Description:
There is one protein chain. Helix content is 30%, strand content 24%. By secondary structure, it is α+β, with helices and mostly antiparallel strands. Strands 8, 10, 13, 14, 17, 18 and 19 form a seven-stranded mixed β-sheet that branches. Strands 20, 22, 24, 25, 26 and 28 form a six-stranded antiparallel β-sheet that branches. A hairpin with an 8-residue loop joins strand 13 (712-719) and strand 14 (728-731). Helix 12 (327-346) runs antiparallel to helix 13. The two termini are 112 Å apart. The model is unreliable at 273-289, 292-303, 462-509, 778-792, 866-884, 929-934, 1083-1092 and 1144-1150 (pLDDT under 50). It comes from Rehmannia glutinosa (Chinese foxglove).
Amino acid sequence: MASFLPQFQSIKTTFDHVVLAVEDVSDLWPMVKKGFEERLPFKRAFLNNKTRNPVLVDELPAEFILTTDARLRSRFPQEQSLFWFREPYATIVLVTCEDLDEFKNILKPRLKLIVQNDEREWFIVFVSKAPAHNDQATKMAKKVYAKLEVDFSSKKRERCCKLDINAPDANFWDDLETKIMECIRNTLDRRIQFYEEEIRKLSEQRFMPVWNFCNFFILKESLAFMFEIAHLHEDALREYDELELCYLETVNMVGKQREFGGVEQGDDQATLLGPARKPLTQIVHDDSFREFEFGSIYLPVKQRGYSFIISFSKALTLHESMLPFCMREVWVITACLALIDATASHYKDGLAAPDVEKEFYRVQGEIYTLCRTKFMRLGYLIGYGSDIERSPVNSASLSMLPWPKPAVWPSLPSNASSEVLAKEKMILQDSPRPKHFGIQRKPLPLEPSVLLREANRRRASLSAGNMSELFDGRPNANDSSGPLSPLPKVNSVSMSRTFSSPGNFEGSIDRPMRLAEIYVAAEHALRNTISDVKLWESLSSIEEFEQKYLDLSKGAANNYHRSWWKRHGVVLDGEIAAVYHKHENYDFAANLYEKVCALYAGEGWENLLAEVLPNLAECQKIQNDQAGYLSSCVRLLSLDKGLFLTKERQAFQSEVVRLAHSEMEHPVPLDVSSLITFSGNQGPLLELCDGDPGTLSVTLWSEFPDDITLESLSLTLTATNNTDEGAKAIKSTEAIVLRPGRNIITLPLPPQKPGSYVLGVLTGQIGQLRFRSHSFSKGGPADSDDFLSYEKPTRPILKVANPRSLVDLAAAVSSALLMNESQWVGIIVRPLNYSLKGAVLHIDAGPGLRIEERHHFEIEKHEVGTQNMTNLDNPPENLSPVSTGVKQLTLEDGKIKLPDWTSNITSVLWIPLRAVSDGLAKGTPAGTVVPQRQSVVDGLRTIALKLDFGVSHNQTFEKTIAVHFTDPFHVSIRVADKCNDGTLLLQVILQSQVKASLAISDAWLDLQDGFAHAGKGDGRPASSFFPLIVSPKSKAGILFSIYLAEAPAKDEAKELQPVSILNIKYTISGSRNLGAHTPVAEELTGPDNDKAEYLTFRSELVLQRPVLDPCLAVGFLSLPSSGLRVGQLVTMKWRVERLKALEEKVASDNLDEVLYEVNINPENWMIAGRKRGYVSLSTKQGSRIEISILCLPLVAGYVRPPQLGLPNVDEANISCNPPGPHLVCVLPPPLSSSYCVPA
Length: 1239
């Protein structure tokens, strides 16, 4: 069976589809071939896997082959059983017949002969050629097909289908595909069973002497390949895994190996996917095999190629001392390249699922990376190490890769002196390319140990007879049946390790090789090892080496970019950029370096970024990319300080400053978030009131190595409670010099809207360049002075309170002051947790009010207890002029500046004012229904106040304060009695209207015409108990004796007095803290001080005739006993009675008509009837009449009822009953039962 190995491998390279045999009985294939092949490949086929479970195959490739084809006729029976996977999976018999006799005598016997083999899956396709218009031919074709179905189909399986050439049926192709799939499925199940049985038999014999791995391999590989053809990849992979395990067990079996191999010409080229390179008949010999040849040829042909390369490389390492120089590295390179070429040619994008596709590209990238690493090692061995970029990725790959371990290091050929000189010249001329900015770095190693020491040590170990290292510690190395590699002669004398130089010991030991000689020796040895012409060409010169290195790097990067491991691709882009940078292709280099820097910066790999970023900056500077170069310099400054020297960081800063002050073509904003950070100062946040400016203190941290000048600086504040509102910027008014480390600056803060504010973005200008920073300072240890909090969300730095009252202005007293007298009006100035330092109060007196500007204003601390003084009869003395603690102020242009000592305390400002009233007070009759007292509005005066305060008088508080002024007394009169002699006793009632003690020293009454004083006639009261003290809000009475006098003649009426005037001379004793008080003292220039001591009050009194002699009486009649209720009509009645007959001189024709009017409160009552009208009343004494009005109560409670008035009759002629206003009770409306449900 082993003799079929070459044929098996050739079949695998050319066979990749299912074969379907076509038995063309009636020469129909040329006619139907096109239609059949258009159905390929089959879509959505269901096949059974090894466990007989259906598996969906999206595409199943197949091929129709005639049974007369040589590919099916030239096979031996043993080939058919061994390579059963390439045999037809179904046989399609094409027939046609137009006559029943022909079918019965000719076609049917032939078909019986064709389908008599039960091992084949078959079905018959009957092709009808009958024209559509020929009914007889069509009917005959149907009869023949029906007979065909009866003879060859059964109930269990339908084996016939009909194709009409002239009238094709669309269902035919679906029926055809269904029958083909059924045949393929049955054939596949049968063949799987066959292979499993054969493999089971061989597995049972594995530990017997007759065991042959080649036979087992062919059967197992055939089964796996059959699964692969059917696109059952999971089953195929499972078979390959089992085959690999069996291979490893067989390799480790003692006695099954003749030798390892790998020392023949061409063994350095991995025969993966290329088995025809060596004669396969030489592999199987005496029931044993070579591990190197068999493993490298067969096992990883399709699956697990990368993992096999890794595992087989380890096997090569174990036998490295027996193999040619660098055999392991060369074999890995050729294996990777072969695997890459094979997979790339067979795979197309979009064939697999996205996850599978990404994994494919990842493995492809790994293969490229492995090949690249081994290729760099070979280049380093032949002297190209100075041209390999000493990057972190190359250093990590090569410094952990051990040196080759040959039995002896290659010796220098005798005729290589010119090559050695060339290598030495190259070494001497090689100098590391200086880095930009003068950066000095120790080169990263590209070797695990010094090559010079390693090479000479291996040469010396052989010369010294170190045989254990020769065989690399393998205990069974001497047991191998094959011959060892030829070795140089070894002197039996051991080398003394204490000799200072090789010349101190005896023997044939060569001198130590120089580095150039090691390079030349390795190059000659590799020339003997490498048989691949293309690989050697890539190592023949530094240009070819760099080109191959670039191709491998690009291949790895491109595949990584399309896989999961995109970061690996970006890292390798940096290696590609290094090559472009070296060859001055700065455009491509800069683009790739930017990708690498973005990755390193995003991952926080600052050490790696420090290696690449200077190269990017150099490319940008050469390209005159000022914006990019500036950004790179800033990023270099932003890296950790320990990565660069101070002078290097100063060079970065100098470049930034130079560009900032130069004329840039396209200036761009610069982000210096990593260099300039900021935060608020420690401690409580700044709190301001709405509308207040302030000064904001901010801490800036500068990471620049030297001082740097900021021409301008602004900082935005972001409101935390209103995200829709944009940030507000505050700006510095002068240039700022930032020193390295911590800097504290102050910025003027304009008024802000209410809310909490956090620091937003720091912007400014360095030279002509604008910069921005949005990073907050990170502090050091919490116990250090440099500690600054770094919080997210950030701590508010400013809080502007919501609009509130910052100050309150109110009247010091609420009680009335004296009208027409100078009074102190107190204004309480109360700061509400806000300083009033420098506040200015504007005062504007309203109408009827005058400021006494000749007097000083007074201000004092507000004492709450001063308003609780009750003993007004003994008021405090010396309230004015200013007492202790009272300061005098002067009014200037209607405003007063408040002293600073009042900024945080409540104070009282006393303003001298005079309320002016031109008219005299009017007295009223006692007991009237509506007393005609002076209206409160008449005594009300207003003061408009405006207070400007705050740091820059930005706060304004305006308020209008109402001050009540009144007369000291309210006067009412009544005739107390009428004597027999006609004398009238007039009682004058004085009601105090101020919160002060009044002392009446004198009073007299100037009577109007028609009245005269009885007695002395001097107008003084009949009872003189002066001085008369009237306490606050109390009453006092004065009695005058008068009588009726003759009225003057009409021609003298113009000069007569129409009203009586009451004159009162009094003094007042009160406190300005409580209300009315002694008028503001005036400086008198004359000898008369009476004006300052006594005050005079005058009031008009109207005396009407007749006195105590009414002619009409109006009485309110009683209400119904049921009472009043809201919503119910009620009749209000009044009785009008004439008490005496009218005098003849006033009689007229209309005296019996009396005008009446009903007065109501419309909120309480509604009238249903005439509100105003005339009624007839006889002029005779005792005549009476009733007036009725229908009313409707609107509200419940005690309310005043409607009142009846007689507009044309003086009140002196009317007697009312009841005499004054009274109340009536109105009940609420009854409960409604409209929505009540009866029980």
